[in-house]
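Practice record 12: protein with decylamine-N,N-dimethyl-N-oxide.
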Amino acid sequence: TRFRYKKVSVFVSLVMIFGVVYLLGVSSSIWSGVAFVPKLYAIQVVNEFPHDPSAFTQGLLYAGNGTLYESTGLYGKSSVRRVALNTGKVEVLQEMDDSYFGEGLTLLEQSLFQVTWLTKTGFIYDRNDLSKIREFTHEMEDGWGLATNGKVLFGSDGTSALYQLDPRTLKVIGKQIVRYNGHEVHNLNELEFVNDEVWANVWQTECIARISQRDGSVFGWILLPNLRKGLIEAGYHGIDVLNGIAWDANDNRLFVTGKLWPKLYEIKLQPIK
Ligand code: DDQ
Ligand code: CA
């Protein structure tokens, strides 16, 4: 009986220890880094730059040396452009045929890759003069966002899918369904590769999802409700949704803008959970 009593008391102690650890896990922020608790981030604006208010931004990236590349949409106003960060000035402009609506854009070595809305046609341009090198067809359902990790292209098509494309053949070589706590996240739009993660702004929301490139799970949300609101309160009319994320990997700077926004913001993240 003594032996049995010992066993029972060890069992009770273990239950109590697990109970305390569990309660700590629920209540304490120490445990919020554990994978199953997605993190939330607010943002702080650390810099703002001028942005062409007629640019319906659909793709955005930072290429170093104070240079951004941008893809713009709307029929008759679509383009690929090289833009000076500090002034917002368009330095090189490649206008697209009126029948195309520019979408996601990414830079790999000397080439810019761009997809277009409601067609499966994409274009490759030379990064220096934006001359068109060739056209391609892709297998995604539509062309929305593009990004790269330097090896493969990531693509979005407005569904919950995050594709991997071979940059030489433009064939789909991988596909993840993006999920947040098991729920599919639809309307994935502009993409950016940031520190081994894929970031996507979700169309018509002011949220950016931080996505694992391995399994498509969302492990963080960046909330940006104040940017568009601030522009409207400052008197700007006719501005559309947040769209466009660019990462400066050398100086760890993060830029965001939106469709027809007169400003581009450099922001920093602040964990709030
Ligand atoms: N997409 O960026 C979500 C992929 C497409 C957005 C298309 C918005 C069309 C706006 C048309 C406005 C015409 C004045
Ligand atoms: Ca981007």
